[in-house]
Amino acid sequence: xxxxxxxxxxxxxxxxxxxxxxxxxxxxxxxxxxxxxxxxxxxxxxxxxxxxxxxxxxxxxxxxxxxxxxxxxxxxxxxxxxxxxxxxxxxxxxxxxxxxxxxxxxxxxxxxxxxxxxxxxxxxxxxxxxxxxxxxxxxxxxxxxxxxxxxxxxxxxxxxxxxxxxxxxxxxxxxxxxxxxxxxxxxxxxxxxxxxxxxxxxxxxxxxxxxxxxxxxxxxxxxxxxxxxxxxxxxxxxxxxxxxxxxxxxxxxxxxxxxxxxxxxxxxxxxxxxxxxxxxxxxxxxxxxxxxxxxxxxxxxxxxxxxxxxxxxxxxxxxxxxxxxxxxxxxxxxxxxxxxxxxxxxxxxxxxxxxxxxxxxxxxxxxxxxxxxxxxxxxxxxxxxxxxxxxxxxxxxxxxxxxxxxxxxxxxxxxxxxxxxxxxxxxxxxxxxxx
Length: 435
What we know:
The chain is mainly alpha-helical. The protein has two domains: about 1-35 and about 185-435, no CATH class; about 45-165, 3-Layer(aba) Sandwich (abc type-2 transporter like fold), CATH 3.40.1710. It is about 70% helix and about 5% strand. The protein has helices at about 1-10, 15-45, 60-70, 85-90, 105-110, 130-155, 160-165, 185-225, 230-235, 240-270, 295-320, 325-330, 335-350, 355-365, 370-375, 385-405, 410-435; strands at about 50-55, 75, 95-100, 120, 175, 180. The chain has a four-stranded mixed sheet with strand order 2-1-3-4, with helices on both faces. Strand 1, helix 3 (about 60-70) and strand 2 form a beta-alpha-beta unit. Helix 8 runs antiparallel to helix 12 (about 325-330) and helix 8 (about 185-225) runs antiparallel to helix 13 (about 335-350). It is elongated, with a radius of gyration of 32 Å. The two termini are about 50 Å apart.
C-alpha cells in the first residue's frame, strides 16, 4: 500500500508540479536578481562621472582631484556661482555626484586641521545603480583621505609608519565555543552559522512540514472528491494500515520535495551572494568547530520523524474532512499558521529571551523541536527542554494518529463532512444577507 500511495502522489500533477517548481523557480529568481542588480551597478559605476568645484585652486586640492581620477572616477572641474548652477552643470555632464572643495583647503591641511568636503549625490532613480555609484565615490574619498593623512603624518614624523599612527592596535580575534579556542572572529562564525543552522536548516524543516501537510491533505481530499477513500475503507484492510501507508507515502514524497527545495534554495543564495557588494570571503568555520555528538543526530532524526508523523496526521484529517480539494486548501491555513509563527521565532529570535507565553506556544508543537535542535546542536548541544520534548512529541503524535485512525470510518466521515458543508453554507448565507 505504501508503494501505491507514493505512485499515486507522484502521478498527480497537483503534487509533482509543486515538487518541481521550487527547484526551477528559486535558481531562476536568484539568477534574475543577480543579473539585474549586477547590470545596474556595473552600468552606474563604469566610468562614473563626477563633477568637482575647486574653490581653493591649490596644488593640494588639484592633487585630491588627481587621486579621484587615479581610483577610477571621471572627475570634471566645473565653475558655478551658486549651488543651483553647479548642480545643473553636473546634470548636464551626466554626473552622479558633485564634490565641493572649499577655499582654504590646502592651508587647513598644512596646519593639520580637518577640512570639510561637501558631497552632493544626484539621485534620479531608486535602485542598486544609485547605491553602487555612491559606494564607489565613498571608497574613492576614503582612499583620498588615507593618502592625505599619510602625507600629513610623514611631514610631522618622517620616520614613523602612518598606519601605526592611524591604527596603533593590532587586534587578533578568537572565538571560544565549547571550550575550544578558534582563530576566527565571532562575526565570521555568526554569519556562517546563522545562514546554515540558524536559517537554512530551520527553513528546510519548515518547508518539509508544510509540504507534508499539503501533500497529505490534497491526496486525501482528492480521494474524497473521487469517492475512492470510501471504497478503500471497505477493503479487508485495517484502518491503521491504511493510515500508516498514507503517512509513510506522504512523508517519502515530502522528503523528496524537501531535497529539491534545498537544492533550489542553495542555488538561489549562491546567486544572491554573487552580486556586487555582497560577496563574502568564505572561511570554512566547520573545520574548527567541534562536531556534534552522534547522539545529537539520533535525537534530531527521532524528533524529525515524530514531527513528520504529527503534521501528516493533521493533513490527513484535513483532507478526510474536506469534500473537495478547494475546501482542503482553505482548511490548511489552520495548520500552516501555527507552524509558521514558531518557525519564524526560532529562526530569527532567541528562544529563551521570548515571553513565557510564546515559549510555551513553541514547545507545545512537535514541529518546533527539530528546528530548535538543529539550531542549538552545533554551539551548545541539545537543550534539556528539547530532550524532554521527545516523549511529549511521541505521546501527542500517537494520540493524533490514534484519533485519525478512528476518524477513518465512512459513516463518521460522511457525518462530519455534511456538518462542515452545512456550516459553510450558513456562513455564505449570512454574508449575502449582510451585503
